[in-house]
Amino acid sequence: MTAAGDRRVVITGIGVIAPGGVGVKDFWQLLTDGRTATRRISFFDPSPFRSQVAAEVDFDPELHGLRPQEIRRMDRAAQFAVVTARQAVRDSGLEFDALDPLRTGVTIGSAVGATMGLDQEYRTVSDGGRLDLVDHRYAVPHLYNYLVPSSFAAEVAWAVGAEGPVSVVSTGCTSGLDAVGYAAEVIREGTADVMVAGATDAPISPITVACFDAIKATTPRNDDPEHASRPFDASRNGFVLGEGAAVFVLEELSVARARGATIYAEVAGYATRSNAFHMTGLRPDGREMAEAIRVALAEARLDPEDIDYVNAHGSGTKQNDRHETAAFKRSLGEHAWRVPVSSIKSMIGHSLGAIGSIEIAASVLAMTHHVVPPTANLHNPDPECDLDYVPLVARDWRTDAVLSVGSGFGGFQSAMVLARPDRDRR
Amino acid sequence: MSTAQTGSFTDDDLRRILREGAGSDESVDLDGDILDSTFEELGYDSLALLETGSRIEREYQITLEDDAVSGVRTPRELIDLVQQRLAARPS
Amino acid sequence: MTARAVVTGLGIVASNGIGRDAYWAATLAGRSGIGRITRFDPTPYPARLAGEVSGFAAEELLPSRLLPQTDRMTRFALVGADWAFADAGIRPQELPEFDMGVATASHAGGFEFGQNELKALWSRGGQYVSAYQSFAWFYAVNSGQISIRNGMRGPSSVVVSDQAGGLDAVAQARRQIRKGIPLMVAGAMDSSICPWGWVAQLACGRISVSEAPDRAYLPFDAEACGYVPGEGGALLIIEEADHARRREAPQVYGEIAGYAATFDPRPGSGRDSGLRRAIEQALRDAEIPPDGIDVVFADAAATPELDQVEATAITGVFGPGGVPVTAPKTMTGRLYSGAAPLDLAAALLSIRDGIIPPTTHVRLADRYEIDLVRNAPRTAPVRAALVLARGYGGFNSAMVVRAPT
């Protein structure tokens, strides 16, 4: 076995469920077409709410192989996780039955857990909020799985046969980056050889819409749903709530090479820091995100100039896009103005804990195809956001190393560097 | 006690709503002369103001526009804003 | 050389004692905090007992502006972190900001806060949902609030693995220490004793419906009939050993010496639980043989099937009666992700004082072949302790703490 200091982690399988694109092929097509999947909320009547748009997935669980009992007992987010995990396993070509299950683990990220299940169940047991002493006799038998979202990781572990370290990582909107970073670390330290890692969230439910309304974080651009998510644009006025999942197979590099796996990218560097400032607010200077970027680059043994594409957090709130632009300038120096930067949230909305993993998938696909996805709806850039955000149209671009970043409520600031394993490392 | 019915909004109403929705800073005497202190000086951040604005809207059945609330810097400005909206409300 | 992670501060909130000394004194005296729920009327529900924390005066311990935006478990966490820092003799404002991180676990987030917001939504409408709902209930809230209150800009993590999460969070802190972060706050505080939380917990089918506080939570007893939930937990200051030495930390409770986590085989596979493998791997990680462990703090699920699995795993590694086993959580209730950090704290205090806390109210069933420390504490030197934590669904975590060298 390779010594701890020499162990490196690569992505060998991908599964994605995103608005407008279920499965890697449709997902990548949406991104390269520059199409948006944001629309008026259809899961419930949105008219009582301030923000009435969302990026919803048209998802038929049976079509994607889930059995009736799985569908009944799993919250939508868990269903996404299991389906994308199975996609990733198939994509990897790895014989999971032949693995030592104790050296196979699972890390699933989720910011808000079984929010849809909890919202619906609460409504029932409380009889529409009427009862303080909610009625346990009306609760679904698997309600505990909604209470504690570690059930998502359990479902994926059962689906793939993992018996090593299994857990959920829940760091708000950086969960998707942090879950993959965590899993990579578990492989690097020698505890596991294969990790099925990614993230999921299905938050499009009245309670979530209401809570983002209350802080005016989501866009009220209800008359133009398709163009409502406008990262870096001067007219941006909040994010579009989304849903989805992306899960990967991560393997130790020498093992992946030995079996002739298709290697998408190396998880070359990862770091997370905290802004320790405010649960929802961001200071404009981007210091802590810049520090996370610096540490991730150092771990990858790359310089800023080696980064070919930056996949931004780009949620489309006034404060985020400004904060993040400052962080890029701080950490990448002059290169910040040369490197293409884009936000796919412009097309698929912000799926909270899931989006970090979905963005890793986009980053890895950019490396596979040498195409960077655009920032849709960017017609009138904010003068404070003066970088190259790849407006409207995808770009053919030699992409061997990508920086993907995320920022979340609670002050979480995360950065990941994805690169080719056979690159020159300084 | 709410003065919503009488159509007025006083500094005591604001004090009450601030306390309920956002607590109060131990080093600040909220009962003192606060009308022209900034909310920042009083220890209330943008989140506290959003919460305060929502509570006022619900209790007094008025609407405060996004930029209006984010634009007020002192209790006096907020009280004036609310009183304007109350006056404009059809009786 | 691999950096060593040592514990230099403890912050504890439990139903039988608030604060390290109150908790430990009550625990050694066999005083339980389990009783009939007072927070709401439990009469309609089949289970009516819990380990509630009473007398926790949040208004006196935290700034009032934090109260509207914090669930009970976040208040426990903020105060617990304050106490842990004080115990460690650290003023966080005086440390370099990027040198400090937080790793917490959660099982249900700020569930009572969420319950109240759900009620507002469904009974009155979306405009009655508070601005704080955007963060006060989610699983990451404690890490976020602790990092903000103490100016900690290093890495912040949150894991959810039901009751096993508390050990996974401390393991994550050790990981960060090994990556070069000198100081981490790690552990968990959980609380979901509210009607909606209660109904959700009842759904797991493992909660005791006994009404007698002294015969309700009986791990390894022939009459085991489920557990009693509680609220609270512990937060630990975990430091790189040289960092603690250089600043002359007032005390070093012990070292996080070993850790492992496994997940049970699929239900219906017929294969054994992974708990024994987790124990063995944790011991190997600590480089301590079974006879180097002086006490095991059991997960103590208190259903016959789960007790059997746990006892079998323990006797499989240590031999029948081969190591003292105890479950002081019989006095506090099962604290979900707060349980194992509290057990770690108790283990470290056992090491410090050379005394093993008891398991209360239990009459040990013969079939379990474990040396259960019952009714009274046992004086014995403790050089190293093993803590076990199992989460619903099949999560098994094991951690070894050892005396400071």
| CATH top level assignment of chain B | Mainly Alpha
- The first-level CATH class of the largest domain in chain A is given as Alpha Beta
Regarding quaternary structure, how should these chains be classified? heterotrimer
Which pair of protein chains has the largest interface, and what are the residue counts?
A-C, 86 and 88 residues
What's the alpha carbon Rg of chain A, rounded to whole Å? 20 Å
First CA to last CA of chain B: what distance? 21 Å
Overview of the structural elements:
With 426 residues, chain A is α/β, with parallel strands linked by helices. In chain A, helix 3 packs parallel to helix 6 and helix 7 (175-188) packs across helix 13. In chain A, the strands form 3 sheets. In chain A, strands 1, 2, 5, 6, 7, 9, 10, 11, 12, 15 and 16 form an 11-stranded mixed beta sheet that branches. The mean pLDDT of chain A is 96. Helices cover 32% and strands 19% of the residues of chain A. Chain B is mainly alpha-helical. Chain B has one domain: Orthogonal Bundle (Non-ribosomal Peptide Synthetase Peptidyl Carrier Protein, Chain A). In chain B, helix 1 (11-22) packs across helix 2. Helix content of chain C is 31%, strand content 20%. In chain C, the strands form 3 sheets. In chain C, strands 1, 2, 5, 6, 7, 8, 9, 10, 11, 13, 15 and 16 form a 12-stranded mixed beta sheet that branches. A two-stranded antiparallel ribbon of chain C has the order 3-4. In chain C, strands 12-14 form a two-stranded antiparallel ribbon. In chain C, helix 3 packs across helix 6 and helix 10 (275-286) runs parallel beside helix 11. At the A-C interface, helix 4, helix 5, helix 6, strand 6 and helix 7 of A face helix 4, helix 5, helix 6, strand 6 and helix 7 of C.
